[in-house]
Amino acid sequence: MNFLTAGESHGSQLTGILEGFPAGVVLDIEKINQQLKARQGGYGRGNRQKIEHDMIQIVGGIRHQKTLGSPIALTIKNIDNSHWAKIMDPLSAETPQNTLRKVTRPRPGHADLVGGMKYGHRDLRNVLERSSARETAMRVAIGSICKQLLSQLDINIIGYVEQIGSVKALGDRPLNVKDIEDKIVQNDLRIIDNEKIDEIHKLIDETKINGNTLGGIIRVVVTNLPAGLGSYTSWNTKLDAKLAAAVMGVNAMKGVSIGDGFEIAKQYGSQVMDSIDWNKEDGWSRTSDNLGGFEGGMTNGMPVVVFAAMKPIPTLYKALQSVNIDNHLQQKANVERSDTTAIVPASIVIESVIAIELVKEILNTFEGSNITRLKKQIEDYRKEISEF
Ligand SMILES: Cc1cc2nc3c(=O)[nH]c(=O)nc-3n(C[C@H](O)[C@H](O)[C@H](O)COP(=O)(O)O)c2cc1C
Ligand SMILES: C=C(O[C@@H]1CC(C(=O)O)=C[C@@H](OP(=O)(O)O)[C@H]1O)C(=O)O
Question: Which pathway or pathways does this protein act in (predicted)?
Answer without folding.
Answer: Metabolic intermediate biosynthesis; chorismate biosynthesis; chorismate from D-erythrose 4-phosphate and phosphoenolpyruvate: step 7/7
